[in-house]
Every structure is written in structure tokens, then in C-alpha cells.
């Protein structure tokens, strides 16, 4: 009976946090990255990370998949939602590996490893997908990025230089985004398990 109850709770987590992520996206709860404003710090990622911390990998990853599918259908455009998914999913996967590596040890070591691997996975995946998109799928985005970088003072003389700078700043953006999403989700996670101490959770409280 306990496993049935827990399974029901995890399904509820998935539905609730996916719905919250969708609502935040449609509510435009986001802040542009000043250097490349088409990159946005999206508060919709916080519910996904909270789902991971509370329910585990299956819940967090499922929430990100549902978010991606709904955005693709609602917007009728595949590239933007796909790029978002290919940023969030590696963060979830890397963070989960970090949690599993140091499970049952210090909460701070667990969180630190989740952050480190979440950043590494997201930056690597983001670099690969951006190379593909900027060079082959939608090269106009590289031209747009080049114009933005020139506007703030960069003297760009080649496509390679433009791509390199774009990838560097995208990596910086992704690093900051993982830190913001994960730390804010962890703060909410801590508050939740204090109010509801019997709540199923992934990260051990000490």
C-alpha cells in the first residue's frame, strides 16, 4: 500500500510542477540576460528542479518533458521549446547524478555536486546544440548575436570569432541559470519539508 501511495504522490508532483512551469512560462516570468537578451532567465525552471529534489529523477525529468510538449503545441514552433528542453534536461540529468554520487552524506556536499554536474551537463549540451543551430539550422541567429555583441563594444571580424563569443556568453548564462534555478528550488524545498516533514524527498535533510 505504501508504494501505491508514494506512486500516487509522485504522479501528483509531476502534474503539479509541470503545470506550474507552464503557467510561469505563459506568464512571462523571465528576465533577459543583458549581454544576449534573447537568452532569458526563466523562473519556470524552478518548479522542475523542485520536482527533482522532492520526487527524484523520474518526476523532475517528466515535468521537463511535459513542459516541452505543451510549449511546442501551444506555440506551434518546435525550435524554441526544443532548445529550452535541451538546456533543462541535461541540468536535471547532471543534478541527479550529483545527488546520487554523494547520497546520504552532507546536504551541502550533495547540493554542491548537484550544482557542479548540473552546470557541466547543461553547458556541454548547450554548446553542442548552439553550434548546430547557429551554423546550420538557423544561421540568422548568429548574425543577430553578432550585431548584439558589436553593439556593446566587441570588435568581431569573423564568423568563428562571433560563434566563439556567443558560446562563451551562453555558457556563462547557463552557469548562472543553473545556480539560480537550483538554489531557489532548494530554498523552497527546505521550507516545504519543514512544513510537511513527511513529504517524500530526494535530498536527505540533516
Specify the biggest β-sheet: 2 strands, antiparallel
The N- and C-terminal alpha carbons lie at a distance of 28 Å
Gross geometry: globular
Question: SSE order in H/E notation?
Answer: HEEHHHHHH
Radius of gyration: 18 Å
Q: Quote the average pLDDT.
A: 92
What fold name stands as the CATH topology?
Answer: Arp2/3 complex 21 kDa subunit ARPC3
The quaternary structure here is single chain
Strand content: under 5%
Structural class, from helix and strand content?
Answer: mainly alpha
CATH architecture: Orthogonal Bundle
Uncertain runs: none
Q: Strand order, biggest sheet?
A: 1-2
What is the number of helical segments per DSSP (H or I, 4+ residues)?
A: 7
State the CATH class.
Mainly Alpha
Explain what you see.
- With 206 residues, this protein is mainly α.
- The chain has one domain (2-195): Arp2/3 complex 21 kDa subunit ARPC3 (Orthogonal Bundle).
- 77% of the residues lie in helices and 3% in strands.
- The protein has helices at 2-26, 45-55, 57-75, 79-101, 107-137, 140-151, 159-195; strands spanning 30-32, 40-42.
- The chain has a two-stranded antiparallel ribbon.
- α2 (45-55) packs across α7 (159-195) and α3 (57-75) packs antiparallel against α4 (79-101).
Write the layout of secondary structure elements.
Layout: H1 2-26, E1 30-32, E2 40-42, H2 45-55, H3 57-75, H4 79-101, H5 107-137, H6 140-151, H7 159-195
Antiparallel strand pairs: 1-2
Helix pairs in contact: 1-2, 1-3, 2-3, 2-7, 3-4, 4-5, 5-7, 6-7
Question: What are the salient characteristics of this protein?
Answer:
single chain; 206 residues; mainly alpha; Arp2/3 complex 21 kDa subunit ARPC3; two-stranded antiparallel sheet
Amino acid at each position: 500500500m505504501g508504494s501505491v501511495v508514494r506512486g500516487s504522490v509522485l504522479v501528483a508532483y509531476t502534474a503539479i510542477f509541470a503545470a506550474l512551469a507552464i503557467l510561469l512560462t505563459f506568464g512571462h516570468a523571465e528576465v533577459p540576460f543583458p549581454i544576449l537578451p534573447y537568452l532569458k532567465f526563466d523562473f519556470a525552471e524552478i518548479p522542475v528542479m523542485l520536482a527533482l529534489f522532492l520526487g527524484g529523477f523520474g518526476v523532475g525529468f517528466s515535468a521537463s518533458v511535459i513542459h516541452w510538449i505543451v510549449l511546442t503545441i501551444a506555440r506551434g514552433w518546435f525550435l524554441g521549446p526544443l532548445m529550452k528542453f535541451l538546456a533543462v534536461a541535461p541540468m536535471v540529468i547532471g543534478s541527479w547524478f550529483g545527488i546520487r554520487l554523494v547520497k546520504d552524506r552532507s546536504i551541502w556536499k550533495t547540493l554542491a555536486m548537484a550544482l557542479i554536474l548540473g552546470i557541466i551537463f547543461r553547458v556541454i549540451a548547450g554548446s553542442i546544440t548552439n553550434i548546430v543551430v547557429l551554423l546550420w539550422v538557423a544561421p540568422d541567429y548568429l548574425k543577430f548575436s553578432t550585431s548584439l555583441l558589436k553593439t556593446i563594444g566587441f570588435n568581431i571580424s569573423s564568423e568563428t570569432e562571433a560563434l566563439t563569443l556567443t558560446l562563451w556568453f551562453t555558457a556563462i548564462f547557463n552557469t548562472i541559470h543553473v545556480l539560480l534555478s537550483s538554489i531557489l528550488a532548494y530554498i523552497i524545498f527546505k521550507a516545504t519539508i519543514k512544513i510537511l516533514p513527511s513529504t517524500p524527498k530526494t535530498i536527505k535533510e540533516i
